[in-house]
Amino acid sequence: MGRGKRFTPQLFRKWKEDGRGTGTGTDYRPFHQVRRSDPASRGRSHLMGNTWSDRKSHLLSDGEKLGLIFIQQMPDLEDCLEQFPLSVESHRPFLSQFDIGVPYGFFQGTQAISESLNIRHPKVYGGGESSYWQMTTDFAVVFRDGSGKRNVLAVSVKESLPKSKRDGEKFKIEREYWKQEEHRWILFVKSDVPLAVRLNVTAISTWTSGRPWLPREALDRTQALLSNESELLIAPCLELIQKEFKVALGTAQECFWQSIWSGRIPVDLSRDLFRGAPLIRIEFSQFKAFNPIWSGVSAWPA
Questions:
Q1: 8 A C-beta contact, residue 31 and residue 20
Q2: Which of 115, 181, 263, 287 has its Cβ near the most Cβ atoms within 10 Å?
Q3: Can you name the residues that pair with 48 across neighbouring β-strands?
Q4: Which sign, positive or negative, has the C-alpha torsion 223, 240, 270, 76?
């Protein structure tokens, strides 16, 4: 992203005219993008493959990269729209772009919400103009629940927990935007995740993120194969998978780590998984708790 470039009303207007913030799946165009022509983000930017589309996700910080890794662990994930723009004016339901059967209606935009909360709406200035700042949510996650119903989880990401009153005011606007549609909003803070967990999930993502997953049957077979192993040592487990399934090492690694990441073989992620010691099996509920996004845990009070 370009250094020295600034956000202006004219730039936001051009992005909207170009269709940024519209579409779903492979056709989605993030509002903020990792491009040299875009103003620079404060964090380190990434273009990262994902499991639900053929496009790359535009991530503006290491925290967003970790967040996307955690999001890809969620079962029945359908879509994830990063850098999603929140409408300033009244708008149709978010899920109407996924399902024409969503009841017709309109919800308040960020301008009306800020007024109802008695909070000053952020603004942008430049070129002799001023306009309302285009607020965004870092991730709008679309997934199916156990009954097959579509659900939305809105996720904002920070490297560390903000402490300023102004940050809190903007969070209130964003949270209310999603709450009015009965969608959850959570704040994910990278520094809240223990370092060992961060290192482990980042390493595991080599075999679990940015690519289609193996068929469920392959992961179920891996789970059954390793269910009687008294010690989960990585090298022997990979050798066993190669031998039994007659696959190459790369495929064996995908079978092993995707079975772990999906919770079929839940292990303790707070321990160094790559030091040569056996992996420690734990209960699924304990394993899921390592992922605050999947668990729906917010760093911001309700």
A1: yes
A2: 287
A3: 57
A4: negative
What is the Rg, in whole angstroms, of the alpha carbon atoms belonging to the chain? 21
10 Å CB burial of residue 249 (0-12, 13-18, 19+) is exposed
Torsion angles phi and psi, residue 58, rounded to 5: -95, 115
The whole-angstrom separation of Cα 106 and Cα 90 is: 6
Do strands 123-126 and 129-132 pair parallel, antiparallel, or not at all (unpaired)?
A: antiparallel
Q: What is the largest CA-CA distance in the chain?
A: 70
- Do residues 74 and 92 touch, judged by C-beta distance below 8 A? no
- Which tokens hold the place of 238? 């990979």
Task: Provide the pairing of β-strand 56-59 with 150-158.
Answer: unpaired
Q: Per residue in 253-283, pLDDT tens?
A: 999 999 999 999 999 999 999 989 999 999 9
Burial per residue of 276-294, b for 16 or more beta-carbon CB atoms within 10 angstroms, e otherwise: eeebebeeeeebeebbbbb
- Kindly state the DSSP code that residue 227 receives in the 8-state scheme: T
Q: Which CATH class is domain 9-193?
A: alpha beta
Q: Confirm if 261 and 204 have CB atoms less than 8 A apart.
A: yes
Tokens read off for 81? 């729209």
C-alpha 7/C-alpha 11 separation (Å) is 6
Q: Which residue bears the tokens 């321990």?
A: 271
pLDDT of 2 higher than 60 = no
Yes or no: domain 195-293 corresponds to CATH 1.10.10: yes
The band of 3, judged by pLDDT with boundaries at 50, 70 and 90, is low
Domain ranges for the chain, please list them.
9-193, 195-293
Please tell me whether the overall predicted TM-score, pTM, comes out greater than 0.85 for this model: yes
Q: Could you tell me which of 291, 196, 198, 215 has the C-alpha nearest to residue 259? A: 215
